[in-house]
Structure formats: structure tokens, C-alpha cells
Amino acid sequence: MNQSNTAVFHSIENEIRSFQFGNIPPERKTILQPLIEFIQEKVSKEQETRLNFICTHNSRRSHLSQVWAQTAAAHFNVKNVFCYSGGTEATALFPMAAKTLEQVGFEVQLLSKGKNPVYSMKYGANAHPIIGFSKTYDDSFNPQSAFAAILTCSQADGACPFIAGAEKRIPITFEDPKTFDNTPQQEEKYKERSIQIATELFYVFSQIKK
């Protein structure tokens, strides 16, 4: 993998080296292709790339996707990429999702407590922190136009036939690790889903020609 100008924490770099693009099934690569094309078009035109990852509750998969996509953009030195996340409703960023990122080396800080806590998540010492909290996809914290809406769960895909302001609507759905909450497999399954999301998004950014 090509290195970026933005230094990623060493432990995250070690995780990145384990990603095997060859293990991504051909049908998944077909699903990922529209996202590659969207980013490539923006890069070729020297425009900002805005990606809004949308799930039902903005609590797990959409946050994992947002953080890993921003990290991938930095790793491959793809400039002017801005990643966001949202839900069809706001709940809370599930603590296990934040812990899963922390375990692979992200610097995670709890900025505020409460029913919808706010987290700061950094992939590198000089990286701009990613602010994580649950919000609707059209929240003022997110872009209002000229973005790709990436649907990370089938429920959100079905519930959002139209997303105002989106230039492109791209379903890239992942199985919900919530199924394993409060089970002995919880930590293992969250890590498994996080690595799947990371591997696929790193594959996407590895295909971008600058």
C-alpha cells in the first residue's frame, strides 16, 4: 500500500498491513465500484469529496465506516475527503463501537456524557479529530448538498428512497454486530465487522488515481 503524508498511529498501521484485498469477494467489489467512481470523479475534477455514511440509528456501522474511510483517505493521501455519518433517527454511538476502534489504536476520548455522548477519535498524532455522536443524516453537522449517501444497512436503504442534497446514493450494506450484544462473542464480532468495513474501504481508496 502507498504511504500517505499524514502519519497514522503505528498500531493502526500494523492493522492496515493485515488487510487482504484478495479476500474481498468479486460481488462485493462490484458493490463497491460506484463509490470508487464517485471518489475518482471528484479527485479528477479537484473537487471536495463528501461521504455521508447512513444507517438506521447512527450507532455502529455508520460510525465505523466514517472513521475508517477518513483514515483510508489519509493513508492513501487522497486530498479533500470529508467523511460524515448519520441515521434515519438519532440514538447514541454504541460504546462497543468506540472501544473496537480504540483497541486497534485509535485515540478515543469521551468529550461529553449523557444519553448521546460525544467522542473524539484520532487516527494520527497530527490528524484532525473525527467527532462521533449519533445524529440524523440531515443534521446541520453533516453536509447539506454535493455528497454521496452511502447506506450501510438495508433498513436505512429501504427507509430512504430519497436523500435530499445527495449527488449519489450508494448502498453498501454490512451485517449488524448488534446481533451479538451481551453475548460472549460480542467483542470478537465487532472486531470482525470493523475489519471487514476497513478492508473494503481501504480497497476503495487504493483504487483512486491521483
What does this entry look like structurally?
It is globular and about 45 Å long. The model has no long low-confidence stretch (mean pLDDT 94). By secondary structure, the protein is α/β, with parallel strands linked by helices. The chain has helices at 10-17, 26-44, 61-75, 95-103, 154-159, 186-206, and strands at residues 49-55, 81-87, 107-112, 118-122, 130-132, 147-151, 166-171. It has a four-stranded parallel beta sheet with strand order 2-1-6-7.
Which structural traits does this protein have?
3-stranded antiparallel beta sheet; 19% strand; 4-stranded parallel beta sheet; alpha/beta; 210 residues
Q: State the end-to-end distance.
A: 14 Å
| Percentage of residues assigned to helices | 25-40%
Strand content: 15-25%
Elements, N to C (H/E): HHEHEHEEEEHEH
Number of helices: 6
Q: Ranges with pLDDT <50 over ≥5 residues?
A: none
- Give Rg in angstroms: 16 Å
- Count the E strands: 7
Query: Outline, from the CA principal axes?
Result: globular
**Order of strands across the main sheet:** 2-1-6-7
Structural class of the secondary elements? Answer: alpha/beta
Main β sheet profile = 4 strands, parallel
